[in-house]
Amino acid sequence: MQSPVLRRAGVFTWLIFALCVLFTLLIRAGAKREMLAYFVFYPPLMAEGEIWRLITPTFLHFSFYGSVIIHLLFNSLIWLNLGGWIEYCEKAWRLPLLFLSTALISNTAAYFSYGVAFGGLSGVAYGLIGYLWWAGRRVVLYRMILPTKMFYTFLAFLALGYTGLIGNIANSAHLGGLIAGIAFAALLPPRFKPLTAAQD
């Protein structure tokens, strides 16, 4: 039987997942440095017109505890589940705009903390977490998708990252994405598709 998570995820959700896999293969998880150089966040080249660098670090995944699969799988599971719900429930423009907003802010935050040495979908994942948590203050369905205890678990992981006990991770990207997701929900409350019974 097909997973309900996989059935729920829409075209945009799957597109971002596919781009993460594709870009990670292109750079060979960071081993192919000449290819990696085309996609990292680098303002001097962005000022010359290479604006794709604002977003492409989101698709780049590297080895974490000796395996790129761990990094990619962890981020992808959150994206497919939470992003899939948002795309399923809300109007078509919501998830793409949320993705772009959280990617831009989390990538910028990461650049000013680490330079070009970062990548991954986790900043956007934390953006989804922040969005659902704030929106869930008024929307019953979103409180069910992301219960308060689960939100606090993600916060605990974020705090643990700053201790250095779980390795070299992009803490600033996580925090930037979380704040961006909360701000998005506060400024642009959910816009549901017709017949979606998600409100109180």
From TrEMBL:
Its main location: membrane. One of its GO terms (molecular function) is serine-type endopeptidase activity. Gene3D superfamilies: Rhomboid-like. Keywords: Hydrolase, Membrane, Protease, Transmembrane, Transmembrane helix. It is an enzyme of class 3 (hydrolase). Residues 49-188 form the Peptidase S54 rhomboid domain. Its EC number is 3.4.21.105. The keyword Magnesium does not apply. This is Rhomboid protease glpG. InterPro entries: Peptidase_S54_rhomboid_dom, Rhomboid-like_sf, Rhomboid_protease_S54. It comes from the Bacteria. It holds the Pfam family Rhomboid. It comes from Suttonella indologenes. It is a multi-pass membrane protein.
